Amino acid sequence: MNQLYNSFTLFLSLLVEAVPFLILGVLLSSALLFLIDERQLIARLPRNPLLGSFVGGCVGFLFPVCECGNVPVARRLLVQGAPTSVAIAFLLAAPTINPIVIWSTWVAFQDVQVVLLRIAFSLAIATIIGCLFGFQKDPVPMLQPELANRVALLAKSQPQGKPSPQKEAVPALLQSGTFFLDQPGQPVRLDEAIAPVVGITPAQAKGRNTKLRLFVDNTVQEFRELGGMLILGSAIASIIQVFVPREVVLSLGQGPITSILAMMLLAAVVSICSTVDAFFVLAFATTFTTGSLLAFMVFGPMIDIKAIGLMLSIFKTRTIFYLFAIAAQLTILFTLSYSYFF
Amino acid sequence: MTNNRFFKFVLPWIDTLTLAAWGVLFLKLIITGQFRLLIHPNYAGLVLAAGIILMGVSLFKAGQLWKSRRRRIETSPQVQHITIFPPGWSTLLLLITAVLGLSIPPRVLASDTALQRGVTEALPITQTQRQSFRGTIKPEERSIVEWVRTLNAYPEPDAYTGQKVDVTGFVVRNPDFPDGYVLLCRFIITCCAVDASPVGLPVKLSSDQLDVENDTWLRVEGQMMTETLNGKRQLAIAAETAVEIPTPADPYKFAD
User: Does A284 reach chain B within 8 Å, measured CB to CB?
Assistant: First the structure.
């Protein structure tokens, strides 16, 4: 009973820490609707997978959110037709490559090397994975079926979309964007087909009152959907915290490889927000290798139990599994080579 | 059809209620000070802001729903849900959690958590480099955490022998210790209760306190001495008085 009460307390503590950051992300994502003309932004994003994923990783610098806040933003980018490579790289890098996290890592460690390596490794991993997923030009097969179905349905019901006059002047295939080609007739641009799914097209957003209403509606909707996932993830994380002794995780190893594995496992289990994880990992600074601390700070923000809950609102389980596996392998590779060479 | 009506009319109100419940939960945690059992006070401002935003959004929604209760709701653009849950499921989860959070106060972590997380006599402090080190602090004014920090800076126990001690903490009975010795512990929080790490010092109790139980909060006064426990030479407190005190309202120490 005590244990259950303990895990409830930890659960509440995780939520009290994460929900404000989630709200920040949801507000940002809703503000994106109006502040940035996403179609223009997305049209300007490089289509080249390598360049796209690098840019996607760096875009995180504009959004000071942790892994609770980046999911709504990434989802919006993806749904508005951003290239897969950009969205995935953003999803993975944004929690680390942002001013707050860099600052908090610096405050905690006071060590330029740690800060730079954390940024470099995260950006490199995000770029590589973004690049890999960039070969899949059409994101639909990776998305949750419900979302994908709706896209297909909409594409069928209005195969032409509503092209604006100047767009008609240019053949559809010469415009940038993601298209459905399997329909008879004109190819359909993905973001046009999918815009009604998210509910709001820029054309609808006229007048200050309407804008405010749409802003609030979008905030409420995203908070509701992602909040539920956050609760699930936090519940699992806190139960594991209480019922699996931390010493089991820590005793997994002091060696160069096992310590990295142990810290990655800890990062996934603890599910702490990237904005504060540097302070947490510092408690292990004397007992663990620097390589393994880096592994914690690089891997944790990308994949943890809480974030997997949130990611399930975008991707199919299989996609998340691939993301997880590739991110884990790359983290091991990078941090191990750091331990080996330094 | 009834299903549709339900989603159109009832669900928005439940959404609004849920937002309000979370807002109230956050504001309550701040006002009662209970947030100090959950997170580092550095984040109090963030929690307060989140509470205010949630209340604001929920009031706005409520006003909007109230105004549009007669009119047919303008084809709300958010009918389409992108979620793996059936509609309403996620809201319900949020609402239940908020209600639980409002009705069950957070528990003060105790010896079971300390043992599970592994108390050592001197866990690593949470900052590798301290910005300032106050060496001039009087020994009897140091808390357990400050003793552990001091000990980390200069670990030789003999250097402290004979110094006066006046500390508070909760008792953890270490099964490996000989009779009469317990650990007096405090949790340090760097971010939230999830990362609370226990630190403690061994205490040699006076004969009348030998049966003190786990989780009892004590104020111990006495002197420092060097002891060999479990084959390890370490600093311990020789208690002259050990008075039972109620659990403090603010039981955790926070890393700076």
Answer: yes
Q: What is the DSSP string of B193-235?
A: GGG-EEEEEEEE--GGGTTPPTT-EEEEEEEEEEEEETTEEEE
Question: Strand, coil or helix: what is A272?
Answer: coil
* Gyration radius of chain A's alpha carbons: 21
Q: Please report which confidence band the pLDDT of residue A97 belongs to, taking 50, 70 and 90 as the band edges.
A: confident
Is B78 in CB contact (< 8 Å) with chain A? yes
- Number of structural domains (chain A) is 1
Which residues from A are below 8 Å from B76, CB to CB?
Answer: 217
Q: Could you tell me if A295 and A331 are in contact, meaning their C-beta atoms sit under 8 angstroms apart?
A: yes
Same domain, B134 and B193: yes
Whether residue A29 lies inside any domain: the answer is yes
Least Cα separation, residue A305 to chain B (angstroms): 14
Say whether B101 and A15 touch across the interface (CB within 8 A): yes
Q: Do A223 and B60 touch (CB under 8 A)?
A: no
Cβ-based neighbours of B37, under 8 Å, separated by 6 or more: A9, A13, B105, B106, B107, B108, B193, B251, B252
A147/A313: higher pLDDT: A313
Helix axes A208-243, B89-103, angle to 10 degrees: 60
Q: In 3-state terms, what secondary structure has residue B18? A: helix
Give SS3 for B167.
strand
Contact B124 A214 (CB under 8 A): no
Distance from CA of B140 to the nearest CA of A (A): 26
Burial of A118 (0-12, 13-18, 19+ CB in 10 A): buried
Distance CA B189, CA B212 (A): 26
Q: Which domain holds residue B131?
A: 111-254
ipTM above 0.90, yes or no: no
> Is the domain of B78 the same as that of B115?
no
Q: Is residue B22 very low, low, confident or very high in pLDDT (cuts 50, 70, 90)?
A: very high
Domain total in chain B: 2
User: Beta partners for B50?
Assistant: none
> Are B94 and A247 a contacting pair at CB < 8 A?
no
Judged by CB atoms closer than 8 Å, whether chains meet at A16 and B85 is answered as no
Q: Domain boundary residue among B103, B128, B150?
A: B103
Look up the CATH number of the domain holding residue B182.
2.40.50.140
Q: Are residues B94 and B138 in the same domain?
A: no
For B:130-189, CB contacts with A below 8 A are none
Q: How far is CA A334 from CA A267, A271, B13, B130, B155, in A?
A: 16, 21, 50, 30, 35
pTM, 2 dp: 0.72
